Every structure is written in C-alpha cells, then in structure tokens.
Here is the input.
Amino acid sequence: MVSTDRWRGKLRRWQWYAHRAGLSWRGFWRRVREKRRILEVLTLEPAGPSRGRVLLSYMGPAYFRLPADSPEVRAHTRVWECRQIAQTFVDLGYTVDVIDWRNDVFIPRHPYRVFIDVRHNMERLAHLLGPNCLKVFHVDVAHMVFRNWAECTRLKALWERRGIVLPVARFEQPNRAIEFADCAVVLGNEFTLGTYRYAGKPLYRIWISCPALYPSPADKDFERCRHRFVWFGSGGFVHKGLDLVLEAFAELPQLELTVCGPIESEEAFRRAYWRELYETPNIHAVGWVDVEGERFREITRTSVAVVYASAAEGQCGAVVNCMHAGLIPVISYESGVDVDGFGWLLRRGTVEEIKEAVLEVAATPAEELRRRAVCAWEQARRFHTREAFARRYRKLAELLLKHGPVIPEGLLADVFEPNPGEGLLSVGAG
Here is the structure.
C-alpha cells in the first residue's frame, strides 16, 4: 500500500514538471490523458479463426469507438478510411492491432503478416518485424521534404510580393517510411507518386473517398452562376494558395469569390489579408461550412467552379468534395486530382495564371460549362466514394496478401478501373 506521504511527493514532482513545461495543473493532466490515448492499443478480432495478425499505425484507437455517423468520422476522410482499412483485414480473417501513428514506444509482441503505417513508425519498427511481414506505407500526402520545401517557396513568394512574413502552418518532420517499406498505397496523382519514386518501391494508387453525395449539376443555371467561384479548404492557407486566389479576385471586381474555411484559425493570415477578406465587395468570407449542410449546397448550386492552388497534397479531399457538388475544378497540378477533359489546370501557381484561368471559365459558353461540371461529378461518383474505396482497397489487400509487394500488373488491371489520365502501378524512377 502506498503511503500518503509518498503520493504527496509524487504530486509535488508532477506539479514541478507541469510548471517547468509552462502548463497549468489542468493543462498538465490534459497532456497526461492525451498521452495515455496515444499509447493505447486496440485489438480487433475476426468472426472466425484468425489467419494471422495485422498491425495498423494510423488514426488511434479512440477513433474506432466513435459512432459511424459522428461528426469526427465525417469531418475528414482519413478517419473513415483508417477504420475501413482495419475492417478490410478483419473481414479477410485477420486480427488487427491498431496503434496511433504518434505512438513512439510500441514494441511488437506478436509476429505480424502485414504492417501498415502513415508516418514514422515504419522506420522505427521495420527491423523488428522480420522479412515475413509485408510492410506497406500508406501515403496520404506528398513527400514531406517536397511538401515543406513547397510551403517555404510559397512563403518566400508572399514575402517578395507583399513584404510580409507569415508563420509556417503545414510543416512536418520528414519521414523515411518509403525507404523501409516493401511497397506503398498512394492517395494521389502522378505528382504525388513522383515525390516517392526515388526509393524504387512499387507504388499502388487508390482514390480518396468522400462522405457526402450530391445530385447531378445537369440542371444548374450556368448562365447565372458563371461569374461565381469558391475557395474551399482547411488550414495552411498560404500552402493551399488562398493568398494567391484572394489577390487574383481582388483585381477582378466583375467576378465573385466565396471563401469557405476556418479563417479564424490563422490570425496572422487573417490580419494580413483583412482587406481582401472583409473589405472587398466581390469576396465573401463565410468561414467553415459543413459539407452536408444546406449552406454548402446553396453555395455550390450558385457557383461555377472551385479554385484551389495548393503547393502540395496527397489527393485533395476538398477538391473532390466540390466535384461531387457539381463544381468545375480550377486547381494546381500539385492538388493531387486529375482533371483531364473537364477542369482547368494551374501549372505556375501565380496570381496572373489564376486570373487568366477564372476569366476563361467565366467566358466559356454555358453548355460547355455544363458538360465539364457533369463530367467532374461523374468522375467523383465513379472513383471517389466510400463504396469505391472499400471495394478497391479490399481487392488490393487480397492481391498483396497473395503475391507480396510486387503484384503482376495484369492482375491490377483486372480489378481496378483506370481513372482517366492515371495508371495503376508505378515502380522505380522511370
């Protein structure tokens, strides 16, 4: 039995640690609870006898206890997709151990048939899992070295254009997971793949899901909405090109822009672009919008296109969501979404290029706009749904389990329907 004096001593030491960390007592315990969540391990068992074990290092166990219709599951595609990846292997007869990708102390205590990781645990654990474990890097973002460089490049360009320096928002410690993995499953397009080819590993594409579905834009009045555009995205506004889009539309008073995103989350950006956001008549900053709410549906019904000039993505869920809602994509190549045949592609990432593109959209005949919007919607319905993700991931998992990291390309072609402009397998640096 622990004496009262001993507990008092422990509490005094914890208070000292909290003080040194600059935390309140309540903040300290909040950190402790969060750390306990990160270190938790959740085991999911199949209905019948287990065929082996799979280790999944992605969203933590807490996300698996949420109801399927909870806001947290619907807020970002990675939560549902992580749960679906685990369910795929459970349905295939495997026991799945789930750990948080930030768990940096987990040590395997079982032999694993497959290990899936999204960040740093691949490098830390690969040598402990042995040669019989298939190690799969789940790629949801462009390589961090490129991504960090791309944000620095955008911040430097902003400094040169406007004489201001804003803090980084999307920086992340680079990882070497692709170098320690046997293969990778990649959410993205040719751009995303290109940032990982240096490692010479098999790269298998899969397409991001979307939580919401919308009716076809075939009946939209494109004559009336041709001058209205949308920027839709989350934080990291310079990285995602909102600064460029705001500057472009501030010089085009004949066109309207609605900005949907958590502007209040980046106060320095908000102050720097206060005039464009709140004092420019043709720009409307509405803040974060629920994609399943009527406000979002009304905005997309009365707009023609989404303008998104990101510096680097895996495959941008915000763009895909807007395609589902009937908006034509006017996006950077680095957004990770192929728009061949229906969208406008931004190659240079400049204010002038964005102005040229949106003016061309506004001048396009209504029937051509309708054709492009319907094509964007059809592609989103065909490739970017939860059902499509679940179906394709299961087929890919079955092939990896049967053939190992190098799947014969003919077998891939039999189970995957190619996205226009996309291949299925990319190996090496060719």
About this structure: DSSP finds 18 helices and 14 strands in the chain. The longest strand covers residues 53-58. The longest helix spans residues 144-162. Residues 154 and 206 are 28 Å apart (CA to CA).
